[in-house]
Specification:
The chain has 479 residues and is an alpha/beta fold. The chain folds into two domains: 46-419, Divalent-metal-dependent TIM barrel enzymes (TIM Barrel, Alpha-Beta Barrel); 421-477, no CATH class. The chain has 18 helices and 16 strands. It binds D-xylulose and cobalt (II) ion (CO).
Length: 479
């Protein structure tokens, strides 16, 4: 038996230790050789992830890191297939553009297909890698920023032409199965957005941002995208001394109104989403959390036009839990989509890690199930590899781990619902309102005089235990 055959045997038997797999077979080198089947027109046709098979469900006892242990796409749970509860999508900017760089360190990831340029040819090749990744992972959706899939040109017209070229390829690679869960315009990286985009003090920047969003909406529509996202990359201020807050908020409302009008004009039926995000990079962001963001369209006559894209790491940065933000969105009929990442409990910035906490995932899925699912929204990971993870295989492992964690969350919710004791505990907690007076209060028919008469009649109220620890005990037993 040759060494190569022994390797195959070990891989088949799942006996190969993870550390050894991580070294893995090399992907095609940058200098596009024959073996990789790359043609001279620079359209990479070779396999970008040659050592990685299509990821399959193997069940919880599998030791194969390149398999699903809990996510079984076709399995039905609580009346829906797992894939329909999840509607997973891959975030282009993190997965295909993530470099591992941070404010203190240079990039650490050099994927073999990257040639170090920001050319359209490179954008096309990267798009091919992206779709091979999605197909091998077995998901049906992706999310993108305009400027991350195609490079800025010297003029707006050139940028639009670059985008058109890359989008045409993406459309071809999507085939009939894959769609964007959402698209968005990247309005924060370019220096001209230094004061914001829709909130910039420069009218030229406002117009430029409008043109960029218009185009990004058009390509999202063309690709069959299901949603379009706005988020305040730089929509906020560091100090009120030089800021006209009212004027900036009014401008933002006009901008969003124009987006609603454009959506209708081009016949885009997707949902418009706003993603709350506190701090980073400005101290006072206008879209701080779910409650703040929900009230904005109401104030400006845009109710019903926007839902929320809740990101778990943004939730914790705003001082809330992810579950709190999801429930705030849900009870207001605004839960549109989830960026299912997580922060680090000890690091106070947006680390965008894959969600791996089973308890948190269970709470996330509790909101999703109560919402009856997320469609036409879904889960965008919005998560990146840590700086220290540098193998192409790590891209797969991270997504599998994030998907399995949420799948475990869904399975746990099914257990909690079948058991019923948590719901019963909540029902009992409020049962004093399941009375004639309670019904009058809830119907808005109990005035202060009537309540005063009752309070006199009843005397000192009896107050029951909230059973916090019991609730936690029931929850833990489902994990
Ligand atoms: C930024 C962030 C973005 C949005 C999309 O913090 O979360 O990735 O989700 O632009
Ligand atoms: Co996000």
């Amino acid at each position: 038996m040759e060494a190569k055959d022994i390797l195959v045997l070990l891989l088949c038997l799942n006996l190969f230790p993870l550390a050894a797999i991580a070294v893995g077979p090399p992907t095609c080198p940058v200098d596009l050789d024959e073996e990789c089947n790359v043609d001279s027109s620079d359209k990479w046709k070779g396999e970008f992830f040659p050592g990685i098979p299509k990821i399959k469900y193997e069940g919880p006892s599998s030791k194969n890191p390149l398999s699903y242990k809990w996510y079984n796409a076709e399995e039905e749970i609580l009346g829906k297939k797992m894939k329909d509860w999840m509607r997973f999508s891959v975030a282009f900017w993190h997965t295909s553009r993530g470099t591992g760089g941070d404010p203190f360190g240079a990039p650490t990831k050099f994927w073999p297909w990257e040639d170090g340029t920001n050319s359209v040819a490179m954008a096309n090749r990267r798009m091919r890698a992206h779709f091979e990744f999605i197909n091998k992972l077995g998901v049906d959706r992706w999310c993108f920023h305009d400027r991350d899939i195609a490079p800025d040109g010297k003029t707006l017209a050139e940028s639009n032409a670059n985008l058109d070229e890359v989008v045409a390829l993406a459309k071809e690679l999507q085939g009939t199965k894959i769609l964007p869960l959402w698209g968005t315009a990247q309005l924060f990286m370019h220096p001209h957005y230094m004061h914001g985009a829709a909130t910039s003090s420069e009218v030229g920047v406002y117009a430029y941002a409008a043109a960029q969003v218009k185009k990004a909406m058009e390509v999202t529509h063309y690709l069959g995208g299901e949603n379009f996202v706005f988020w305040g990359g730089r929509e906020g201020y560091q100090s009120l001394l030089n800021t006209d807050m009212k004027r900036e908020l009014d401008h933002m409302a006009r901008f969003l109104q124009a987006a609603v009008d454009w959506k209708k004009k081009i016949g885009f039926n997707g949902t418009l989403l706003i993603e709350p995000k506190p701090q980073e990079p400005t101290k006072h962001q206008y879209d701080w959390d779910a409650a703040t963001t929900a009230s904005f369209p109401q104030k400006y006559g845009l109710s019903g036009e926007f839902k929320l894209n809740i990101e778990c790491n943004h939730a914790t940065l705003s001082g809330h839990s992810c579950h709190h933000e999801l429930e705030t969105a849900r009870i207001n009929g605004l839960l549109g989509n989830i960026d299912a990442n997580t922060g680090d409990p000890q690091i106070g910035w947006d680390t965008d890690q894959f969600l791996t906490d089973i308890g948190e995932a269970t709470l996330v899925m509790l909101s999703v199930v109560r919402n009856g699912g997320l469609a036409p929204g879904g889960f965008n990971f919005d998560a990146k590899l840590r700086r220290e993870s540098t193998d192409v295989e790590d891209l797969f492992i991270s997504h599998i781990s994030g998907m399995d964690t949420l799948a475990r969350g869904l399975r746990n919710v099914a257990k909690l619902m079948e058991d019923g004791s948590l719901a019963e505990l909540v029902r009992k907690r409020y049962e004093s309102f399941d009375t004639e007076i309670g019904a009058q209060i809830e119907a808005g028919k109990a005035d202060f005089e009537m309540l005063e008469t009752k309070a006199m009649e009843w005397g000192e109220p009896r107050v029951h235990s909230a059973k916090q620890e019991l609730a936690e005990m029931i929850f833990q037993s489902a994990l």
